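# nightly structure sweep
# worker-07 picked up a monomer target from the shared queue
# config: single-sequence mode, recycle default, output format = structure tokens
# input follows
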Amino acid sequence: MDCAQMKQWMLEGGDPTAAEVMRHMDECPACKSLYASSAELARLLAAEQAGQVATAIPDFAEIEDQTSRKPSWWQQLAEMSTGARSGAALAVAALPVLLGLLRHRANLTDYPPGRLAFEMVAMAGLVLTSLWLWLRPLYRPQPSHRMLWTVLALALVLPWAMALYPAALAAPAEHLGSPGELRKAANCFLYGTLTAAPALVLVAGLGRRGEGFPGFALLPAIAAALAGLLGLHLHCPEVSPVHLLLGHAPIALVLPSLLVIVGLLRRGRRRVAS
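# output follows
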């Protein structure tokens, strides 16, 4: 028996205990491997050709393991209805804003109303858009890549543009470049990052859709970062561009970068496990 005859024998569902077959598989590792991976399929095909009903042999141990395994809390989040997922995402994204309102900046009434309204609406609009894109149910078509890239670009650029824009209020000269500037910036950075962290974790777990394109997975971090910046903008009284560049704007880069690093580490562990 040669390799061609062996393949034909497998397609016909031949007897695997035949001496000629066993001898060929001992001599040909390729055919032995092919038989090991295709024997069940070959048996089913042969039965179909013969007009017989062939039943697949289930792996009861695997079925029992899958049915007894409880879904993780991460999987349970994704299995919630669209309304429940949207409500949970909005609630956790609103937490930094509520904290900012409860401990609002002392100069809030002095801040130019038109500029404050524009900055708040711009950040809130990007938060809502990011959540809408991330939480869309699977039966609805995914938006175009151009729209997704536009949202990501605006979300990354807006905090830096707000920081570089001329100060909304006159800042005391001693605050610009004073020794305490780095400390104040670090405090604001930590405040904004920590208040945005719960939103990042929860919103990332609420998504169902696959990435679709490389930047799609950044949407939870974008929404969380802007929610944290929104609350920080209501809380921090500093208007110095230097302070905003050091303590506020970097949050929009750090959270997406953190999400990318976590994703790469998880992907590396899966490769090692496989």
